[in-house]
Predict the 3D structure of the following.
Amino acid sequence: MQRKLAITLGVIMLALIALIVAIYQLVKNNSEEYNKIVLSQRQASYDSRTIPFRRGDIMDRNGTVLATSQKVYNLIIDPRVIHSGEGDRYVEPTIQALVSFFGYDENELRTLLKEKADKSYVKYKKELSYDEKSGFETYMTDKNKAYSSSGDKSRIRGIWFEDEYKRMYPYGSLACNIIGFSSADGSTGTGGVEQYYNDTLMGVNGREYGYLDSDTNLQSVLKEPSDGETIVTTINTNIQMSLEKYLNEWQTQDVGSKVAAAIVMDPNNGEVLAMGSTNQFDLNNPRELDTSIYTDSYLLELGRKEAVGVYKREHPDDEPITVDQVSKYYTNDEIISYGKQVAWNQMWRNVAISDTYEPGSTAKSITLAAALEEHAITPSTTFNCEGFIALSDGIHTWRIRCHNHDGDGVIDAETGLMRSCNVYLMNTAFALGAENFVKYQHIFGFGEKTGIDLPAEADTSSLVYSPDNLGRTTLATNSFGQNYNVTMVQMAAAYCSIVNGGNYYKPHVVKQILNANGTVVQDVKPEILRTTCSKSTSDFLREALYQTVEGGTGTKAKIQGYKVGGKTGTAEKIPRSAKNYLVSFIGFAPVEDPQLVVYVIVDTPNLVGEAQATASFAIFIERKIMNDALQFLNIAPSSETDPEDNINAKFAQNPEGISNDTMGEQVTTAGDEGETSEGETAESETDEDGNVITPTSAPIITDEFYEEGGEELGFNLPDAVPGDEDTGDTAEGETETENQE
Amino acid sequence: MSKKKKIKHFFDYSLLISVFFITGLGLIVMYSASGYSAQNSMNDAMYFLKRQAAFALVGIAVMLGVSRIDYHIYGKFSFPLFAIAMGFQVATAAIGVASHGSARWLSVGGIRFQPAEIVKVCVIIQLATLITHHGLKMNEWKKIMITAAWGMLPAVFIAKSNLSTGMIVAGITFFMVWVSCKKVLAFAAAGGFAMFIYVFAYPAAKLLQRLNILQEYQLTRIFAWKDPSSYADETFQTLQGLYAIGSGGIFGKGLGESVQKFLMPEAQNDMIFTIICEELGLFGAVSIILIYAFIIYRLYDDARNARDLLGSMLVIGIMCHVALQVILNIAVATNTIPNTGVTLPFISYGGTSLVILMGEIGIALSVSRQIRLET
């Protein structure tokens, strides 16, 4: 027994020695290799994972969500893991799983796995929903379990999901210019609030990472992402919808124009309630071009022009190339892509703040306000309008005409505005003097940036005259809004100050900033930048503008039950010889306590020549927007309203179609008239302030063109005579009446 | 009477000190290995350390207490003890608490323990008693078979739910019976057969698969043993253990510097030896093995010099128990044998195992206490 015991001990000791040898072999043969594996595994466990932040929402003033971020999942393929199985035992099951669950293309997957075999991160599909993600995960687990229990060593491997947020715009193209859009990862915004408030909307990515603490234990730390802040805009979604609806109606069911735009502001605080143009795009697919407009040939044309510029930038020292030579230097695809960029920028352009134009007669109120402030004239100052003013610099003589070639006679300030008399305004400007005129242009914000909280506001500082180079002729044309450029938001903000008693509020589109929990972190207070005019001037102009709608050039803007004021504008565009016009109307209501300013411009209606110069195109749009806006804001009417104007009734009866049809007829009539005879065209223009400016030789202001223009435009009918206007617009008036019934 | 008083009694202090030492060392490496996962899952890096230290204190109390009890008492109560242990085992199969896949736990009065550990010690006592009872009759085949059956039947029963414990019980039985008789050839043949299986298991499995007699999944354990990197899913633990041993090198990365413990599931349990290798290197591993070798040698010495056959057989059983667990555990860690869950005595985390082992050492000490020193 002793012997056997000793043998037992010997066996045990031998076994222990064998094990020591085994360990020694492991250490000796594999130390280096295993060290590498261990280190690479450690690296993997140290690897930090980014947890994306959630970009803040954008809401309208009432909390309607206009832009939001939704969690989505990216499908990540790890080809290295998939190929890691012996005999490719992960490849087939994984491909089959993806094909049968998601319906992905099998050949594509195979090619991808082959080509990127050494990669570990291939983002294969983006923006999968939670259901898709969890569905596949369950499917994968079940399938792997089934493989395991059936003894098959195949496995689905190397597929995982990555969190991401997707930007969603529930209303599609609504308020596209104000909102803008953000990049897929939510880190950059393009256009609108998304761009201007990018830093506010953005949060900070969270991170999950490991580190070794003082006890050399690996600690996993989760740093939660901080989500972006939510922006409450000043937009009123209902008004914005109306605005876009009526602009679209005009564009698609009516005459239409190159572009039409509108802006609705609250004059008492500078809040932009709505802003839009006929250039609309789907915020959810901002790069989708309308192929009917942006055909390949058009894109090529745009691209060639752009390529010339690109070539010049890239080769500043070389001879610039011409449009025809572009194909030699750039491939067709490149040119198309340049063309697309141009097209996108055209489409995304915010007309209301990025485009400048000559305002036309809407600027007359500003000229009058300046003159009244400086006591250059008083409301009772009269000038005699003989139909034109003759100006001479000693060499040339120009005659700048009023619409009314026969002259308006001796009129006071209010009548001058009501009739939109160019002569009265020119005389006013002369009385005011160039220096004061320019000073007030700047006081009213022309040539200045309004500072609106949107990107890409046009710089108009070089588009207005300085007192030094503002000659008498230019002063004359400037007095009624020609020969200098403004933006829509400048004009709207200037009118806000005129009607609110002289406070120039900084126009803005953001009202509040909320943190991710919905707590208010910042209230944007209305900011008065300066005082533009006195209370008495404001009161006078409010009344004069009211009279303009009641019995002047803007009678079509009347809304039964409300006192509406406003001013028309018809500007002839450069080059004057093209006879293209930009018509506009700026209205406000109620006159006794203005709550709304609505400004509409229609740039180059789709008509030929002077037929374009029909301010009622803009008035009709403005009137519809104003009517809806007054009701949306529940502004109490001062007298009985027309039931036909009631938006609820309109929705119930669906009279939009009717109204459109009649409108269409009416406007078409006007267009026909314009085409058939110039005289009749002039008639149809009579509702508008006459635009006598026509350039001849020089690109901008030579007096010759005025003379020519004056000769060409035969204004037979007086502009501002109410009776005449009514006659001229009989058809329109009737149609309107019909509409209302 | 006065003559009796002069008799000097022996006490195996070397064994006691060695066990203290390895238990203390075990606590240190166990803390290093478990701290990370304890912090993660329990929010307390010392969770496993505290529990294991408490078990160690209980174990030491049991050990010292048992060492004072005359071991002959076990001979009288061997069958009731055996019956109770087997009763626990049956109860476990019926109402056991599942943990890590199979039901191996039994909860009695709020104390959770593994009955399989108790079976081990009860089988040792029962076999020692039987062998002592049979005496020289152990050389008869009939008695050998009957005695062996007392160990092999529980082993088969346990192996159903816990293969490794079954193997250890069978191994203890094999060695105790082998030492108690004079037969050699049969045991040598059995040992040879085991070696044969060990050497030819892999080729045989390959052959069986090729002949389509067995499917691959039935043989996975064997395939994964010889080719762990191709079965990364099934052998994750084994593979990480090999990386740990290999990357440890000769002197290791230093205590607490293990990297693999961050990846290794349950690093404080069966695979703790790999963490020891990683932190303390080949040098540390050999040192630990030498301590075990010394403990085994001390037990051998006590068995050799025991006052009677019962004491001798008890200590032999205990020696086999410790040796088998050490060998199997390290063999698994080094992938010398297919993966099976065996704890490393005195070091691996686990209360039942530690307390029972301490108790067994207590029995061995009690045997050593009755050794008469020849003066």
Summary: The CA atoms of residues 694 and 712 of chain A lie 9 Å apart. The first strand of chain A starts at residue 49 and ends at 51.
